[in-house]
TrEMBL record:
<dbReference type="InterPro" id="IPR020084">
    <property type="entry name" value="NUDIX_hydrolase_CS"/>
</dbReference>
<feature type="domain" description="Nudix hydrolase">
    <location>
        <begin position="16"/>
        <end position="145"/>
    </location>
</feature>
<dbReference type="InterPro" id="IPR015797">
    <property type="entry name" value="NUDIX_hydrolase-like_dom_sf"/>
</dbReference>
<protein>
    <submittedName>
        <fullName>ADP-ribose pyrophosphatase YjhB (NUDIX family)</fullName>
    </submittedName>
</protein>
<comment type="similarity">
    <text>Belongs to the Nudix hydrolase family.</text>
</comment>
<dbReference type="Pfam" id="PF00293">
    <property type="entry name" value="NUDIX"/>
</dbReference>
<dbReference type="InterPro" id="IPR000086">
    <property type="entry name" value="NUDIX_hydrolase_dom"/>
</dbReference>
<keyword id="KW-0378">Hydrolase</keyword>
<dbReference type="GO" id="GO:0016787">
    <property type="term" value="F:hydrolase activity"/>
</dbReference>
<dbReference type="InterPro" id="IPR020476">
    <property type="entry name" value="Nudix_hydrolase"/>
</dbReference>
Amino acid sequence: MPPAAAAGGSGLLGLRRGPRASVVIIQDGRLLMMQRIKNGKEYFVLPGGTIKAGETPAMACVRETREETGLSIWLAEQLCTLEHKGRIEHVFLASKFRGTLRLGGPELARMTPDNQYHLRWLDYAQLQQVKLRPKNLLVYCREWLWPVEE
């Protein structure tokens, strides 16, 4: 078994994971997030994952979103590039999506009581109350979900 696999794929042995691609999917003023509960610690990330060899960030974003959420997405544009603990994250906006939202792929296969994945729709007020990764994600969420004046 490769060292990263023995460590649960978390890079605990000093192995760096490659760049990540993630997606912003907004519906009814809420942002789709992946809730992670790992070894008793809870945090939220955008759906997405590691860019494979030969993939562009956009290709990885579409593939990872389909695997993790069951949704087919169409990308509008790259919104920003973030960094968390030395790992680069390319963030894209989905212009539209189709499908039935359901957890799938490796996330479903790795689900245990100590390693949980849950798809959640959160509005801006809820995003302010949870731990986001990367930490500076909230600044961007405010821009993406700015409350509409009525």
